Amino acid sequence: MQIRLLDRHDVAGFRDLRLAMLRDAPSAFGASPDDEAVLSEDAWAARIGPDDNTALFGAFIGTRMVGSVGLFRQRPAKMRHKALIWGVFVDPDARGRQLARRLMQTMIAHARTLPQIRQVTLSVTASNLHARALYESLGFVQYGHEPKALFVDGNWFDEQQMVLRFTSAA
After folding, report:
1. Residue pLDDT, tens place only, 19-68
2. Which pTM value belongs to this model?
3. C-alpha distances out from residue 122 to 42, 85, 87, 164, Å
4. Closest by Cα among 30, 29, 34, 47 to 13
5. Cα(135)–Cα(166) distance, rounded to whole angstroms?
6. Distance (Å, rounded) from C-alpha 125 to C-alpha 1?
7. CA-to-CA distance for 65 and 17, rounded, in angstroms?
Protein backbone atom coordinates (compact mmCIF):
# COMPACT_ATOMS: atom_id res chain seq x y z
CA MET A 1 0.00 0.00 0.00
CA GLN A 2 1.16 3.48 -0.84
CA ILE A 3 -0.22 6.93 -0.06
CA ARG A 4 0.94 9.79 -2.23
CA LEU A 5 0.05 13.28 -3.38
CA LEU A 6 -1.93 13.16 -6.60
CA ASP A 7 -1.23 15.26 -9.68
CA ARG A 8 -2.70 15.79 -13.17
CA HIS A 9 -1.63 12.30 -14.23
CA ASP A 10 -4.07 10.84 -11.69
CA VAL A 11 -7.23 12.47 -13.05
CA ALA A 12 -8.74 9.30 -14.55
CA GLY A 13 -8.07 7.18 -11.46
CA PHE A 14 -9.45 9.82 -9.11
CA ARG A 15 -12.52 10.42 -11.27
CA ASP A 16 -13.29 6.68 -11.21
CA LEU A 17 -12.82 6.51 -7.43
CA ARG A 18 -14.86 9.65 -6.81
CA LEU A 19 -17.81 8.39 -8.85
CA ALA A 20 -17.58 5.02 -7.06
CA MET A 21 -17.57 6.72 -3.64
CA LEU A 22 -20.63 8.79 -4.52
CA ARG A 23 -22.47 5.61 -5.55
CA ASP A 24 -21.22 3.58 -2.55
CA ALA A 25 -21.97 6.11 0.18
CA PRO A 26 -24.54 8.62 -1.09
CA SER A 27 -25.39 9.92 2.41
CA ALA A 28 -21.73 10.73 3.12
CA PHE A 29 -21.23 13.28 0.35
CA GLY A 30 -23.03 16.40 -0.81
CA ALA A 31 -22.53 15.60 -4.49
CA SER A 32 -24.13 12.86 -6.54
CA PRO A 33 -22.61 10.84 -9.41
CA ASP A 34 -24.82 12.79 -11.84
CA ASP A 35 -23.45 16.10 -10.49
CA GLU A 36 -19.86 15.09 -11.10
CA ALA A 37 -20.04 12.86 -14.17
CA VAL A 38 -20.43 15.98 -16.31
CA LEU A 39 -17.28 17.73 -15.06
CA SER A 40 -14.57 18.48 -17.60
CA GLU A 41 -11.05 17.09 -17.50
CA ASP A 42 -9.83 20.56 -16.46
CA ALA A 43 -12.32 20.69 -13.57
CA TRP A 44 -11.09 17.30 -12.31
CA ALA A 45 -7.46 18.43 -12.64
CA ALA A 46 -8.21 21.65 -10.71
CA ARG A 47 -9.57 19.59 -7.81
CA ILE A 48 -6.36 17.62 -7.65
CA GLY A 49 -3.92 20.53 -7.75
CA PRO A 50 -1.54 20.36 -6.04
CA ASP A 51 -0.87 23.97 -5.08
CA ASP A 52 -1.01 26.13 -1.94
CA ASN A 53 -4.81 25.96 -1.94
CA THR A 54 -5.58 22.41 -3.08
CA ALA A 55 -4.20 18.96 -2.39
CA LEU A 56 -5.47 15.45 -2.89
CA PHE A 57 -3.85 12.30 -1.58
CA GLY A 58 -4.62 8.86 -2.90
CA ALA A 59 -4.13 5.44 -1.35
CA PHE A 60 -3.02 2.73 -3.75
CA ILE A 61 -2.86 -1.04 -3.67
CA GLY A 62 -0.55 -1.76 -6.54
CA THR A 63 -1.62 0.67 -9.25
CA ARG A 64 -5.29 0.83 -8.18
CA MET A 65 -6.44 3.90 -6.27
CA VAL A 66 -8.53 2.66 -3.36
CA GLY A 67 -8.82 5.74 -1.17
CA SER A 68 -8.61 9.50 -1.12
CA VAL A 69 -8.67 12.63 0.98
CA GLY A 70 -8.80 16.20 -0.31
CA LEU A 71 -7.93 19.61 1.08
CA PHE A 72 -9.21 22.98 -0.04
CA ARG A 73 -7.87 26.15 1.56
CA GLN A 74 -10.17 29.13 1.88
CA ARG A 75 -9.11 31.83 -0.61
CA PRO A 76 -10.33 35.11 0.98
CA ALA A 77 -7.53 36.84 2.90
CA LYS A 78 -9.52 36.87 6.14
CA MET A 79 -10.07 33.10 5.92
CA ARG A 80 -6.71 31.82 4.60
CA HIS A 81 -5.94 30.33 8.01
CA LYS A 82 -8.60 27.63 7.39
CA ALA A 83 -8.72 24.62 5.13
CA LEU A 84 -11.51 22.12 4.48
CA ILE A 85 -10.88 18.39 4.38
CA TRP A 86 -13.21 16.66 1.94
CA GLY A 87 -13.74 13.42 0.05
CA VAL A 88 -12.45 10.99 2.68
CA PHE A 89 -13.13 7.52 1.33
CA VAL A 90 -11.73 4.00 1.22
CA ASP A 91 -13.06 1.42 -1.22
CA PRO A 92 -15.07 -1.28 0.62
CA ASP A 93 -12.65 -3.99 -0.60
CA ALA A 94 -9.71 -2.14 0.98
CA ARG A 95 -11.27 -1.35 4.38
CA GLY A 96 -9.97 -2.76 7.64
CA ARG A 97 -6.35 -1.77 6.89
CA GLN A 98 -6.32 1.62 8.67
CA LEU A 99 -6.20 3.41 5.31
CA ALA A 100 -8.66 6.14 6.31
CA ARG A 101 -6.55 6.88 9.40
CA ARG A 102 -3.35 6.93 7.35
CA LEU A 103 -4.92 9.18 4.72
CA MET A 104 -6.14 11.60 7.37
CA GLN A 105 -2.79 11.62 9.17
CA THR A 106 -1.04 12.31 5.87
CA MET A 107 -3.40 15.18 5.04
CA ILE A 108 -3.14 16.71 8.50
CA ALA A 109 0.66 16.60 8.28
CA HIS A 110 0.47 18.22 4.83
CA ALA A 111 -1.90 20.95 6.05
CA ARG A 112 0.52 21.79 8.86
CA THR A 113 3.18 22.60 6.25
CA LEU A 114 1.03 25.17 4.44
CA PRO A 115 1.75 28.80 5.29
CA GLN A 116 -0.78 30.43 7.62
CA ILE A 117 -2.98 27.35 8.13
CA ARG A 118 -4.18 27.29 11.74
CA GLN A 119 -7.08 24.86 11.49
CA VAL A 120 -8.73 22.25 9.31
CA THR A 121 -12.45 21.58 9.25
CA LEU A 122 -14.67 18.84 7.89
CA SER A 123 -18.28 17.79 7.82
CA VAL A 124 -19.43 14.27 8.60
CA THR A 125 -22.83 12.64 8.45
CA ALA A 126 -23.96 12.51 12.07
CA SER A 127 -25.03 8.86 11.79
CA ASN A 128 -21.58 7.78 10.47
CA LEU A 129 -20.25 6.63 13.84
CA HIS A 130 -17.06 5.05 12.47
CA ALA A 131 -15.99 8.23 10.68
CA ARG A 132 -16.85 10.41 13.67
CA ALA A 133 -14.82 8.15 15.97
CA LEU A 134 -11.86 8.31 13.59
CA TYR A 135 -11.94 12.10 13.42
CA GLU A 136 -12.31 12.43 17.19
CA SER A 137 -9.35 10.08 17.73
CA LEU A 138 -7.28 12.42 15.55
CA GLY A 139 -8.19 15.42 17.72
CA PHE A 140 -11.17 16.88 15.84
CA VAL A 141 -13.95 18.36 17.95
CA GLN A 142 -17.51 19.17 16.96
CA TYR A 143 -18.33 22.85 16.61
CA GLY A 144 -21.65 22.64 14.80
CA HIS A 145 -24.59 20.48 13.87
CA GLU A 146 -26.73 21.00 10.77
CA PRO A 147 -30.08 19.21 10.86
CA LYS A 148 -31.32 17.89 7.53
CA ALA A 149 -28.11 18.84 5.72
CA LEU A 150 -28.56 16.19 3.02
CA PHE A 151 -31.65 14.71 1.38
CA VAL A 152 -30.88 11.32 -0.18
CA ASP A 153 -33.39 8.85 -1.58
CA GLY A 154 -36.24 10.29 0.47
CA ASN A 155 -34.27 10.44 3.74
CA TRP A 156 -32.81 13.35 5.68
CA PHE A 157 -29.28 13.23 7.11
CA ASP A 158 -27.81 15.58 9.68
CA GLU A 159 -24.18 16.68 9.46
CA GLN A 160 -21.69 17.55 12.15
CA GLN A 161 -19.02 20.14 11.53
CA MET A 162 -15.68 19.36 13.16
CA VAL A 163 -12.44 21.28 13.55
CA LEU A 164 -8.83 20.46 14.36
CA ARG A 165 -6.92 23.50 15.54
CA PHE A 166 -3.15 23.51 15.25
CA THR A 167 -1.39 24.63 18.41
CA SER A 168 1.96 25.30 16.76
CA ALA A 169 2.51 28.03 14.21
CA ALA A 170 1.92 26.36 10.87
Report:
1. 999 999 999 999 988 998 898 888 888 888 888 888 999 999 999 999 99
2. 0.91
3. 25, 5, 10, 9
4. 47
5. 15
6. 27
7. 7
